[in-house]
Design goal:
This protein has 10 helices and 14 strands. It is of the alpha/beta class. The protein is globular, with a radius of gyration of 20 Å.
Amino acid sequence: MSAKPALICGNWGGTALRVYCLDENGRLCRDLRFGRGINQLTKAEQKAHWFDLVSDLPKVPHLICGSAGSNLGWLETGYVGLPISLNAIASKVAWFDFDEGRVGIVPGVKAENPLGEPDTMRSEETEILGFLENSEATRQRVLCLPGTHNKWVTVIENEARQFFTSLTGETFHALNKNTVLTRGSGAPSLGVAFDQGVKLGLNPKGALLQKLYSVRARQIDGSLSAGDSASFLSGLLIGADILGAKEIIGVSMQLGVTVIGGDPLGESFERALKLAEIPCDQTSGDDACVAGFTAIGRKLGLLSDNPRI
């Protein structure tokens, strides 16, 4: 007999929503489905969008991580501090009751980053918990979680002790859509132009602002086609992000980086890290997120502590 659906989960970011239906053993029992990001909806629209998207799913508790709990979301909740732990996250899940169902919002994480500046994350904490649940104990590891707001996380003795945010994805979107650099030439792809951009971004001479105009100047001199300009820009920004991460994190980067995210952006970071000669591997962001929701669900008593095969 197949296990019964027990928990509907949502990873709701600024640009996208991923919904998972988990059975009582914490396994995905319905196909992943997608919705609109928080930034594309008003607060009033977010609630309707969520319940419309899950209306045909079983009437079980809902658990959402990400921007739905931010000050841009329809159910604003608080934050926990470092280190990131299952007990801290699960104990601060905030519950809301609606006619359509009961919704729990996973807290974000708030801390001072290595630059001495305030920093936050939402949704990445769930993926980090999932990664830690599925990983063998490791003395030290750096995690990279690509996205609109890319996160670099230092794991020590299986605890996330430090993180900082790079505005890599949002910067690419803004520059690609609104400047003369690419004139919105399209989606980036991996190839020679991307690699050239990464190498320029990794060049320690000069800051990013001194490098950006190369995207335009190379098109003028004919060394870069307009069609490849978005790929070059993407590589440049990711290379600059990695260069900055190396300066902040230091020698620990050479112990290895795990990229959490299997979409084209995750593949781009993995390729760029290899060009930077930094050991790296990649794991699925969906798998990490499901594992994180499963761990939280079990801690809250919503899923079985003794899953059946």
